[in-house]
Amino acid sequence: MAGESILVVDDSAVNLKLAAAVLRSDGYRVTVASSAEQAIMTLRTTVPDLVLVDIQLPGMSGLALTRHIREDSRLRKVMVVVLTASTAPECEQQAYEAGCDGFICKPIDTRTLGPRLRNFLEGATAIPESSAKESGGGGGLGLSGPEMESLRRSFLVDGLRQVRRMLEFSGSEMDANTVARQFHQWIGSAGALGYLELAEQARAAEALLGHPGWTRDDLRQMLAALASAFSSPREAADTPIPERMAQELERKRIALVGFADEEAERVCVAFEKVKALPRLFSGDEPPDSELLRDCSVVMVHVREQTRDIPWLKVDCPSRKPMVLVGGRDQLLALPAAVQSRACEFLIDGWQPEEVVLRLSFALARSAETGVAAQEPPQDSRPNIVIADDDTNVLAVVRNTLESLGMLCRCAISGEEALRMIREHCPQAAVLDVNMPDIDGFDVLAGIRHAGLRVKVIMLTARQHERDVLRGFELGADDYVVKPFNPLELAARLKRLV
Q1: Which PANTHER family match (predicted)?
Q2: CA dist list (Å): 464 to 219, 339, 438, 479
Q3: What backbone phi and psi angles, to 5 degrees, belong to 4?
């Protein structure tokens, strides 16, 4: 039967997000709880088909929750599967004695989690750990895309910050149980996100605190090793922000309108790097209010809870530079009049460096508005050159842009693109970074060296933030990350031309 309901109980936000995303992609209906007590509240009004619960929880443990479920006749048909990072043989026995139907060791293999739970629900014997790994192609992250990339980056950044804080206070009194619980969380989260060495380092740290006789020097050494493990993955590396861009945003007041708490915190971390000054607004304030008046840019979080706020209305009176933040589909679903008011879009899955880039673009475009009227083109249709050595990308982009009334010319190499641009003087060019002979950067440099007034959008691969910065330094007007939605590219082109 498809669409069974699963309640996931875990005090790790990363584990909750990851398990929920994996299970929903497999067709399950998922509810989450961050504690056993919260799960009990949920179970008063909901009877799921299965409860997936971590054994180690703050307050009531996962095994205590299992016993509570077994004592409630209303929940007698609910299956309970426990998760644990413990490798002790007696742990599994304790789980079954408490009334569990299944037992899964962390780190979670995201490729096989759904099928393993399906096996439990269908009453079959649990898939053995070894068989699951063989069928799933190994452990690690089973999903891709901006959401998972953002989850990985957030985990590394937050973890490194917590380790450094522990190191700072390692000479004073620390609650060993609290620290051990944090290590336990990292075992599951790191393993599920594909950081197996980090997971093993966290397991060693948890084991240290479980043995009597450990010293503060032992703990400091273990924390230093964890800090190194959190810093090692490529996603943890800071991408340098150009000094000119940082100076443009320094001391600028930025209004954050309608942001969820977690997203607001991430944005504020990005602002710390350039010393910008964020101000938080619920979204209900009038756009022309005094507090908003002295903000240089307004960032609006587009989500279900903010769709009716004044900033997203067609008749919004404010003309402040606006950056719209949210999921690609949510942004493209906004009325055209609202989209056209935005100086920039920031698509979910963004990294801190991208926040700074998009804000810098927004301020620059705001300053350019009305400075000098551009000469009207001979043809009323926007003239665009598209350059990419992938003919499939060319075909999709061309069809999309031509359906929106744009005149397109296509090039499959950098040399051909530069020749077309010199001959036809288009209003804009879309350049793939990686092309044979002359790459997109060289084409961009040639355009700027010749003094051609062509708006340029760069196409780059996700996780190649340095490509974005290099393009910006060479004079790019915008960029889009592959894989991309052609309608997003079209929306960005419309604002430029």
Answers
A1: RESPONSE REGULATORY DOMAIN-CONTAINING PROTEIN, STRESS RESPONSE REGULATOR PROTEIN 1
A2: 36, 27, 19, 12
A3: -65, 155
DSSP category for residue 283: S
What local confidence, expressed as pLDDT, does residue 81 receive? 94
Using DSSP's 3-state secondary structure scheme, residue 479 falls into: strand
3-state SS, residue 461: strand
* Lookup: tokens for 175: 């609650």
Alpha-carbon gap, residue 279 to 264, rounded angstroms? 10
**Two tokens, residue 351:** 């990294």
Cα–Cα nearest to 472, from 347, 327, 356: 356
Task: Convert the pLDDT of each residue in 228-271 to its tens digit.
Answer: 998 887 665 556 666 777 788 888 899 999 998 878 887 887 88
Q: Under the phi-then-psi rule, with left for phi > 0, alpha for psi from -120 to 50, and beta for the rest, what region is 59?
A: left
Distance CA 138, CA 20 (A): 20
Q: How many CB atoms lie within 10 A of CB 188?
A: 26
DSSP three-state, residue 52: strand
Contact in structure between 112 and 141 (CB atoms under 8 Å): no
Q: Which of 406, 425, 408, 379 is nearest to 494 (CA)?
A: 406
Question: Which region among 154-168, 270-284, 462-476 has the lowest average model confidence (pLDDT)?
Answer: 462-476
Residue 240 to residues 53, 267, 271, 442, Cα–Cα distance (Å): 41, 17, 14, 22
Tokens representing 437 are: 């002979």
Instruction: Give the β-pairing of 79-84 and 383-387.
Output: unpaired
> For residue 247, what are the CA distances in angstroms to 252, 286, 411, 468?
10, 30, 37, 18
Q: Is the dihedral of CA 189, 190, 196, 202 positive or negative?
A: negative
Give the percent of the chain with pLDDT over 70: 87
The tokens describing 121, both together, are 């629900």
CA 217 to CA 480: how far, in whole Å?
Answer: 48
Does residue 275 sit in helix, strand or coil? coil
Q: Check if the beta carbon of residue 105 is closer than 8 Å to that of residue 126.
A: no
pTM for this entry: 0.53
Please give the structure tokens belonging to residue 124.
Answer: 């079959």
Give which of 478, 489, 474 is closest to 455, Cα–Cα. 478
Task: Compute the distance between CA of residue 468 and CA of residue 456 in angstroms, rounded to an integer.
Answer: 12
